């Protein structure tokens, strides 16, 4: 997600934690119950993200080369937001593994972000992509990927289906995908000359700032699942 290694003090960290404490329970409840509540959650999120996307390019018109280019970016938001949202709904719709799959993805994304924040803050070191997100470090990336891998292994153990090393390794790869999704949005925001996509979530910015990595991970997992035998958890 956006700038996970910024050290903005205890006050900002407390604000982030309080925001998470308010937002996470209803999200987990919707995932657990499934449709239609999960679908309604995703639909509401899409509306918010679409508004943030249109605001992003409306506010940054002077940063873009031509009006026609701005129209293409606005249209591209349907793919950037809509396709991963549909992927999440499709993944959750699996009667056998849908709930566990979405819980695993959420845990993986949160673990990656937390790992990147902690390792990047404690270790510091060389910057990962200073032109895109100057506060991200290689240490943060490695820490985030390690936490993603550990989350995958823990998920396999909790489910009791075997494949601990397999899901751990695959989750580590998804940790890289999650960070790539974060950097992609950072590049988009840089192009538009803004720091955050919005101010909806105190301490985090907009909803797009919060779920950019999840969008990338959900799309990747859905594509792999389509190419294989359904949910990846079924393969274990």
Task: Describe the protein's architecture and organization.
The chain is mainly α. The protein has one domain. Helices cover 72% and strands 3% of the residues. The longest helix is centred in the C-terminal third of the chain and has 29 residues, at 164-192. The model is unreliable at 1-8 and 59-63 (pLDDT under 50).
Topology:
Blueprint: H1 10-33, H2 37-59, H3 67-92, H4 98-123, E1 127-129, E2 133-137, H5 138-159, H6 164-192, H7 207-227
Antiparallel strand pairs: 1-2
Helix pairs in contact: 1-2, 2-3, 3-4, 3-7, 4-5, 4-6, 5-6, 6-7
Could you tell me the number of beta strands?
A: 2
Gyration radius from CA atoms, angstroms:
18 Å
Query: What's the number of domains?
Result: 1
Distance between the termini: 29 Å
As a percent range, the share of strand residues is under 5%
The secondary-structure class comes to mainly alpha
Residue runs with pLDDT of under 50 for 5 or more positions: 1-8, 59-63
Coarse morphology: globular
Biggest β-sheet: count, sense, barrel?
2 strands, antiparallel
Helical content, roughly?
Answer: over 70%
Give the strand order of the largest sheet, numbering strands 1, 2, ... along the chain. 1-2
Look at the structure and give the mean pLDDT.
Answer: 87
Count of helix runs? 7
Reading the helices and strands in chain order gives: HHHHEEHHH
């Amino acid at each position: 997600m956006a700038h996970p290694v910024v050290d903005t003090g205890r006050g900002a960290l407390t604000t982030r934690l309080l925001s998470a404490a308010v937002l996470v329970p209803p999200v987990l409840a919707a995932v657990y119950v499934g449709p239609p509540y999960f679908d309604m959650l995703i639909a509401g999120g899409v509306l918010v993200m679409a508004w943030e996307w249109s605001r992003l390019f409306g506010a940054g018109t002077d940063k873009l080369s031509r009006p026609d280019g701005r129209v293409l970016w606005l249209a591209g938001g349907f793919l950037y937001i809509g396709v991963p949202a549909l992927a999440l709904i499709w993944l959750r719709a699996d009667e056998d593994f849908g709930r566990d799959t979405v819980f695993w993805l959420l845990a993986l994304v949160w673990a990656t972000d937390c790992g990147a924040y902690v390792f990047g803050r404690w270790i510091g070191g060389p910057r990962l992509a200073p032109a895109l997100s100057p506060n991200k470090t290689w240490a943060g990336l490695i820490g985030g990927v390690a936490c993603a891998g550990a989350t995958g292994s823990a998920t396999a153990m909790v489910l009791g289906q075997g494949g601990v090393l397999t899901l751990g390794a695959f989750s580590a790869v998804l940790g890289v995908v999650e960070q790539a999704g974060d950097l992609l949005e950072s590049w988009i925001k840089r192009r538009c000359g803004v720091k955050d996509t919005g101010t909806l979530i105190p301490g985090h910015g907009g909803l797009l700032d919060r779920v950019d990595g999840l969008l990338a991970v959900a799309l990747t997992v859905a594509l792999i699942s389509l190419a294989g035998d359904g949910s990846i958890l079924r393969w274990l």
